[in-house]
Amino acid sequence: MRVAGKGVIDRSKAVSFSFDGRRYSGFAGDTVASALLANGVSLMGRSFKYHRPRGVLSAGSEEPNALITTGTGAGQEPNVRATVQEIYEGLVTRSQNAWPSLDFDVMAVNDLAAPFLGAGFYYKTFMWPKRFWEAVYEPVIRKAAGLGALSGQNNPDTYERAYAFCDLLVIGAGPAGLMAALTAARAGADVILADEDSLMGGRLNAESGAVGHQSGAVWAAGIVAQLSAMDNVRLMSRTTVTGAYDGGMYGALERVNQHTGIRGAGAPLEAFWRISARHSILAAGALERPIAFRNNDRPGIMTAGAVRAYLNRWGVAPGKRVAVFGNNDDAHRTARDLAAAGVHVVALIDSRPDAVIEGATFPVFKGAQVCNSGGRKALESITIRTDSGEEALQVDCLAMSGGWNPTVHLTCHMNGRPSWREDIQAFVPTPGSIPDMTVAGACNGVFSTRACLSDGVEAARTALGALGRKAPAEMALPEAEDTPYALSPLWAVAGAGRAWLDFQNDVSVKDIKQAAAENFSSVEHMKRYTTQGMATDQGKNSNVAALAILADATGRGIPQTGTTTFRPPYAPVAIAAMGAGAQGHGFAPERHTTSHKRSVAMGAPMIEAGLWYRPSYFPKAGETTWQQSCDREVGYVRKAVGICDVSTLGKIDIQGPDAARLLDFVYTNMFSTLPVGRVRYGVMLREDGTVMDDGTTARLGAEHFVMTTTTAAAGNVMRHLEFVCQALHPEWEVSCTSVTEQWAQFAVAGPMARALLNGMLDKPIDNESWPFMACGDVQLGGVAGRLFRISFSGEHAYEIAVPSRYGAAAFDALLGRAEQMGGGAYGMEALNVLRIEKGFITHAEIEGRATAFDIGMARMISAKKDCIGKTMAARPGLVDALRPQLVGLKPVEPGGRLTAGAHLFEREAPAIRENSKGHVSSVCYSPELGMMIGLGFFAAGPARHAEVIRLVDHLRKVETEVEICHPVFLDPQGERARG
Amino acid sequence: MREGLTGNKGWGPHWRNPEPKAEYDAIIIGGGGHGLSTAYYLAKNHGMTNIAVLEKGYLGGGNVGRNTTIVRANYGQQGNSEFYSHSLKLWEGLEEDLNYNAMHSARGLINLFHSDGQRDAFARRGNMMINQGDDAELLDREGVRHLLPYLDFDNIRFPVYGGLLHRRGGTARHDAVAWGYARGADQRGVDLIQQCEVTGIDIENGQVRGVQTTRGAIRAKKVGIVVAGRSGQVAAMAGMRLPIESHVLQAFVTEGLKPVIDHVVSFGMGHFYISQSDKGGLVFGGDLDFYASYASRGNMPMMEHVMEAGMTLMPMIGKAKVLRSWGGIMDMTPDGSPIIDKTDTQGLFIDCGWCYGGFKAVPGSGFSFAHLMATGEHHAPAARYRLDRFRTGRGLMDEEATGSQHNLH
Amino acid sequence: MRIECPMCGSRDRREFYYQGAAVMLARPDPQAHEADWEAYLHLRENPAGPTRELWQHDGGCGAWLVVTRDTVSHQISDTQLAADVKRAMGKAS
Ligand SMILES: Cc1cc2nc3c(=O)[nH]c(=O)nc-3n(C[C@H](O)[C@H](O)[C@H](O)COP(=O)(O)OP(=O)(O)OC[C@H]3O[C@@H](n4cnc5c(N)ncnc54)[C@H](O)[C@@H]3O)c2cc1C
Ligand SMILES: [Zn+2]
């Protein structure tokens, strides 16, 4: 019910929304929870395990009960706190974890089965008969699991990520945070003030006490206005700082449009921030804790602070007949505020016999406790226990307070452990838990408003000192409530029945005691065994009480029993927010060659090659399978001329007097002996002796080389060269520059390759001027390019490089001429066939475990010099004659099928692991040979050419007798490439 | 059932809290999954009951209680293949053996691949699995779509080409495994001693004599080091230096959700894997944080990277909210495979190097390590897990094929 | 985490590549004992505390760095160019 004259909502703006299909009306500034309470709705959810009816417990993000689903269709969002979600026109919400309805939930029978479902029930039950767990019980448990549901459809909303930098991050905009921000801002520091709430001010918006001559809320609004006028301050409301990380980094979630109906492109729903702060002030306040008593979970029972918040901030009385139950003075305010607002206060029950209660206009019970509640889906009564016995009171709302827990969470994120303070019966942050963080206000255990204001100023002074800035001389502090906070511990009211601690997970005091009895007596054991603290509030409402009960059950003090710890995030964060931008193609950059557009225009399917896209094949009219296109393209190269964009290969420009020395050191073979104007193939090892990469390197000048790497290893090789140059041999004068992006490079391959080039080069070439493995500068229509006579197909072939800006034009020109000559473009499929026919390896062969020995290149490790990997490559295990080594494979029956990934066995040996002697790494159909051929590795294979072995691919159900052969299937003497 | 009817009062302590004795036949350092299973099998298979497990914190409080609980036997290299195969068979009989519900759930694991080359590499692995007698099926894109209709098949940076399905792969409840072994060991007389940190290893004339602990010196004829991420430090107490670098691996769990993910799914183009717990939380993770660390907490860049991978692969999880993130310390070896071996000190044994994959190994590792400790002979399925393989290059098991840099596996 | 690159200043961890312990600077002689190579490539001190390690600013200037960092707190106390460290090692020996 609304209470006239109360609250900071905008009563001139009515807002309608729906809950479980019914329309309700609230005001701008309402949350779903405040609006539903205003409409007299108290049942908002069902608990996880027993499906007990639940209403709101709190007025913040720590809410364990009132979790709802918002929106419909693909964008529906589960597990939204009704206490945080602001209403907007047309907002659709519904309850969850209830079937068929919130009001009548069949799963509530679980509550009756509770004796079987106590702590650790999973482990001790559901086991017998054998296999029943997986077959019967687990499916049932899984079905019943979970709270809300995902839509199952692709996320339709936009999310963003951003960086922010500041001198000082102030977390929490209550009295301490506001004063801290103001002080630091006045000193000229760059300040970010972040608060989870839509409205800055913290508890000041929820309390009735004055600050200075104004209400707390008005005073806070005034400070916020001052701050927002300052250029060096950034105010971030609706922003939860979710985690504290190394080096002053903080994660923060801003709910940009969760309070509006705006969706779609350009309007992020949420933004995830990484804030780099030189210093931070944690002023995150405190969270009130409930008291455990029998049936303390009925809708209508909430924390005393929440009741005040609903009354003072939202102008809502959560009940008509309200009782207040606490162990501390703070709870008294709830009773006083309610009474002052004209709400019927049935009783104030203080567990302390000596409590001092001033100005009570309502019945007061000291030294009394609430020991039970009645009602079904809403609170109807409570039972109180006094010296004179038990007595029932008719109430529809109970405000309870077991004291306050400082919001220490962020201080635990870097493994800090909070410290116990006996006087306030709570944990406070241990100083130094987060480097460069100062804690202020209630989260530091400072509870009066006045003390929080001054603690905020003090924290800012500390921060400014650390930042090397001068603090303002004087910060005027307004008058404010300054009463001491006094309480005596009351965690659970004794008695039979179930007294709840973790509301959502249905953990009761009994469960904790049972865990202790079963020797799960460390806090961590207890938590895991009972699921205490594992619910969506992560124990914010219940961990300390559970710890206290465990301490009691095991006869230890609270600090001896353990502390409570918290991990990021402080409040749950959507995966879409932290992974913003990655959905669809945003996950990784896309690299396109200069021929990309033309290839796409030619209908080539583009496939991913690392970050690059490369054409798979170029279909022609009439071709129905990729194989047809591939065979045709192979034919271009073998019979005419083919063009292939090879720009994705890494190109590294290496210059300096020690360039040759570097190459000698990183390649197994010699490069210092390579004449200028020549290219050489090289194999590079990792220091552990396995092959890292292979490729060709051209010597363009005495001190100038260009290395090519495979597409996949380009980055690694570059890093490796830098490592050698900087970390192993800084004395060498050599520099390495990646020029992959700068040069577009095309293979021109086939018997007509030279003829094609000669039609384009400004100066024609012949076999004398440009023999196999020659390289040098050329002019192509006036453009300076480079020409390398190298071949990855075994044919007479070249690679021509032009500056990237001419790439597209060069490709078009090359292609045009090739087509005139009966050739054309070839893609990855054809390239693969061409290289397999010639036994050239790729990363299918040098997959990270193969050694130079395995690929038959042990002789390429020069004996004359040291090189990276040389020593370790000589380890006995890496040169064992029985290692699987590179071989060619062809089917005994010409139609036989080969598959890559198959294992190889002796002809008669059963296909079991012990007998596996190798595997097939690459296969293709060779149009030239008219059958499938493959490369693979077989134990001592090179010694066994012409022998027949067996290929077994269980997965594809292929078994083929294959003959071991030399890996070079075509033109073993290499005459074509030289001719 | 009877416990339910009597109000669950009859369940006594899961294990005793014994005082350490002056001497044991064998001491296991580390009360994680591997230490507890070792103790259990020493008692059960080898009749060694005068033994103790020394745990510096509380039982199961290390990685065994922090992992993402994937259990599988889908390795591609000789050595790993037979070991994990044996371990999976133990999992399959575990609940009966321990009389404890470890909630082992063979819901099927799918490794997705995103190129022809990856498909062939997975085929090689799948064939190894079948060679070993385990199960594997190669799915094409439509096969994957049938099982995982919620993946983004239409607009994804690295399209799904198919997947390797391992039906017997799945998950188990991590804590329950540790507790089940602890209870079983305790029932057989093993002393489980918590809050007992080993601070020194006593060696005389090349023979182990016992350990120094925060609860005093304890003599022992045999000592087994089973301390996962702390292996390097405990081994240093015996003057050993290990081929191990410790790294943090993070994991994440979301709020409880109605069932949407029925399998364990692993992305092939950016470390990301996910399953849904029986309570409804999506449990997922990715790569190491990549720099050496003993801080059991993760960093933001890797956290975001894992979320990015999830969003490109299955954007339907976008509105699931991450509830908790945490990290565990991984003992990374130069080939990414573990070590179960003797040491140069008589009576001192070591079981370590489990990297991020040792949960599934808990039964097998305990079984094989107990065998080694009790008999002095290597147990066949773990016979290749030798410490000297890095020096000799014999029997390296580099599943990821990334070479000797510890953090790249 | 942020790392102070001597060339570029304070940068986010995302710009850097981690390789491992700085022992990798001291590459043994090819003829050295296999134990030296084993120690170089595989064995690690792996301390819980301050350690020197190799990082590269590969998303920036490309410099290889020797970073002194605590593996428990992750606090970085020093960063130097690997080239400078290596040159100094040469002089010392
Ligand atoms: C986030 C994450 C996800 C993972 N996911 C999976 C997965 O899905 N599947 C999988 O198979 N594996 C996974 N793992 C790996 C797996 O958890 C570990 O490999 C395995 O648990 C390690 O063995 P353990 O259980 O014995 O280790 P731990 O549980 O860490 O046990 C080691 C114990 O030794 C104790 N100890 C250390 N030093 C001393 C000392 N000086 N004295 C006494 N005691 C000491 C520690 O306190 C600890 O309890 C994951 C790990 C992490 C962190
Ligand atoms: Zn730099």
What report would you give on this structure?
The complex is a heterotrimer of chains A (979), B (409) and C (93). Chain A is α+β, with helices and mostly antiparallel strands. Chain A has 7 domains: 1-151, 2Fe-2S iron-sulphur cluster binding domain, sarcosine oxidase, alpha subunit, N-terminal domain (Ubiquitin-like (UB roll)), CATH 3.10.20.440; 159-286 and 406-467, FAD/NAD(P)-binding domain (3-Layer(bba) Sandwich); 290-402, 3-Layer(bba) Sandwich (FAD/NAD(P)-binding domain); 495-556, Arc Repressor Mutant, subunit A, CATH 1.10.10; 596-647 and 742-835, Gyrase A, domain 2 (2-Layer Sandwich); 650-738, Alpha-Beta Plaits (2-Layer Sandwich), CATH 3.30.70; 881-979, Beta Barrel (Elongation Factor Tu (Ef-tu), domain 3). Chain A starts with 9 loop residues before the first strand and ends with a helix. The mean pLDDT of chain A is 95. Chain B is α/β, with parallel strands linked by helices. Chain B folds into 2 domains: 20-67 and 175-243 and 335-408, FAD/NAD(P)-binding domain, CATH 3.50.50; 106-169 and 246-332, 2-Layer Sandwich (D-Amino Acid Oxidase, Chain A, domain 2). With 93 residues, chain C is an alpha+beta fold. Chain C has helices at 34-41, 82-92, and strands spanning 2-5, 9-12, 17-21, 50-56, 64-70, 76-81. In chain C, strands 3-4-5-6 form a 4-stranded antiparallel sheet. The longest helix of chain C has 11 residues, at 82-92. Chain C is globular and about 40 Å long. Chains A and B meet through strand 6, helix 3, helix 4, helix 11 and strand 31 of A and helix 1, helix 5, helix 7, helix 9 and strand 16 of B. Strand 31 (573-574) of chain A pairs antiparallel with strand 16 (321-332) of chain B. The complex binds flavin-adenine dinucleotide and zinc ion (ZN). Zinc ion binds next to loops of chain C.
